[in-house]
Specification:
alpha/beta, Arc Repressor Mutant, subunit A, Rossmann fold, five-stranded parallel beta sheet, 13 helices
């Protein structure tokens, strides 16, 4: 664990109630707090700016700017799963309350994403997707769940999407990409090297790249034409994909609207095929 996060967790018992609230917010928002001004952090926590300044000095920093710099450096050093679990144990006092806290934090992640979403970038991503000859979705480890969801709906609507999830199969899948294709990379801290390398390769081939990631320091960004961010950080042994999934839902819906005239007949034909193969249950028990 980095010295900063270790210091925060070690000093939790010595903190005042307000300081503990700040500490909890910092540990629950590791990927966004490093970019907040002192005023923004104070507002989000519900304390005064002076309290935030005192929190920084309490931790041993000269002031908030030094504390913020340390946060940004710590952000680059991703926590292990064990370290995340330890932080979770430190900041959540009661098991039942922590469940409700996590729900509230997921709501906040979605709200924060909507406030920070650049609609111009979002619409450019839609343009790239609907005009692509082929769509390659690169995702590994837990992000495969998001990639599978995205691939399913894009393939139903556009019939040209493919998920690449096997690290050993990336070269065989991507060697044929060109400037008419689009690669969508999904990766969140801790970022998978294979996904970064796949996006780097696509970038070198002149293929347009859309990154769906968690923050502006993500290693996917240097190889991406469009970046869409949604926080996934969570003080637990798992990441929270609630906000990224909400972003993906919006992408799928927007593509469906843009291509409605093209896909309506296709979907009607699919319905008859699904009925032929008895895909859906008609047992509506009450």
């Amino acid at each position: 664990m980095t010295d900063l996060y270790q210091t925060i967790t070690d000093k939790l018992p010595e903190m005042s109630k307000s300081q503990r609230e700040i500490a909890r917010y910092v540990l629950n928002h590791m990927n966004s707090v490093p970019f907040l001004t002192v005023g923004s952090l104070a507002k989000k926590v519900g304390v005064g700016e002076a309290t935030v300044y005192r929190f920084a000095t309490f931790l041993g920093y000269k002031g908030y700017p030094d504390f913020q710099k340390a946060l940004q450096e710590a952000m680059k050093k991703q926590l292990t799963t064990v370290e995340q679990l330890k932080i979770s144990d430190d900041i959540y006092d009661e098991e039942d309350q922590s469940t409700y806290d996590m729900f509230e934090e997921d709501i906040e992640r979605i709200r924060e994403m909507t406030h920070q979403l650049n609609l111009s970038d979002f619409n450019q991503a839609i343009d790239l997707i609907v005009n692509a000859k082929r769509i390659f979705i690169v995702a590994n480890r837990s992000a495969v769940s998001l990639g599978s969801f995205l691939e399913f709906y894009f393939d139903v609507m556009l019939e040209n999407a493919e998920l690449i999830r096997n690290p050993h199969g990336v070269s065989e899948k991507l060697f044929r990409i060109d400037e008419d294709d689009v690669v969508i990379g999904l990766s969140f801290a801790r970022y998978t090297k294979n996904t970064v390398e796949a996006l780097s390769f696509a970038h070198d081939r002149g293929t347009k790249v859309v990154a769906i990631t968690d923050n502006r320091l993500s290693p996917l960004i240097p190889y991406s034409d469009i970046v869409l961010c949604a926080r996934s950080d969570m003080s637990s042994l798992i990441d929270s994909f609630v906000a990224p999934l909400s972003l993906i839902n919006a992408l799928i819906t927007a593509v469906g609207r843009r291509k409605r005239n093209d896909i309506e007949q296709h979907l009607e034909e699919l319905e008859s095929v699904w009925e032929r193969f008895n895909i859906f249950s008609d047992d509506m028990r009450k």
